[in-house]
Write a structure and sequence with these properties.
The chain is an alpha/beta fold and about 350 residues long. About 35% of the residues lie in helices and about 15% in strands.
Amino acid sequence: MSKICKHPFNSIQIQNTGEVYCCCCYWTNFYSFGNIFEQSFDEIWNGEKAQKFREQFLKQEFKYCKLNECEPFLPDKDYKPSLVCEYPKQIEFSYDRRCNVRCIFCRNEINKEEEIYNREKEHKIEKNFDSIFTPILERAEIVELNSAGELFASKHSIEIVKKVIKINPNIKFKIISNGILFTKEIIEALDLKERMITVTISMHSATEKTYNKLVKHGNFKKLIENVKYLSQLKKQGFLQNLQLNFVVTSINYNEMIKFAHFAKKMEAKAFFINYHRQIDDNKLEKELDISLPTNKNYNKLIKILKNPIFNENYCYVNDYLKNLKPISQNFLNLFNIKGRVK
């Protein structure tokens, strides 16, 4: 059976501008189906742009996607995609950028102008939420929050959770979080215990020392406590999937194996992805990006990736990292890099 991705056929991601994507806008090179504030949802969902996007998927072309970072997958046996689709089963709200921490590979500081802009867009969403989203949410099965920031650090996003449950009491949630505020108490307060199917926690380290280098204003002990509670929920059958994310950098790469063992103990999936540089000529970002052949620790990362633990079913390493190749001593000498090929 050919590989194909379900997202263009049954999922949407909504940004605060009103732009509608089928999944992460970065992975699809910001290919928008339309704008929810300017068009009806029916016009967007089965419009010309949506059908054009789906058509190239059915042809196995994937020309709008970054396949080195997000790969298509095998669909269910009975899955039959088409250009014109029923309403999406999964809706992702990905626009609230409030966060309680500052990760060095994400956002070091708060941009005040961006904050004001985001608040204005949020007010527009709040004002139009019932009229725009009720018809979509009533037919949805899953809502995903929040890949843009931290759900539990935002009153706005918490109110979205409450509104979604009110509109569709049978809805299930996929939640992305840094884990610090994801406590037993907030899960009970929002009545999420039996509504979560997938939880993804951004951890990026196996030790407190390394975590503190990567995350400002974090709390590693609280993070571990909350992950252990989520692990209990999974073991008790309340949670289908628990995923622990690890962005590989020059600071944390030597903890990958230890992190994988921790994930196994938690009955979670360890998810390893490469670091995305946001500014190509930024010195700090180049130092963090260990996937660059010019990075002095590049070959050390290659050696770690050869460990058989990364072939286990509880480990996922994205294609970009999988396809990295060792470099020669001559290359190191050419760029005057202090490293040694073993």
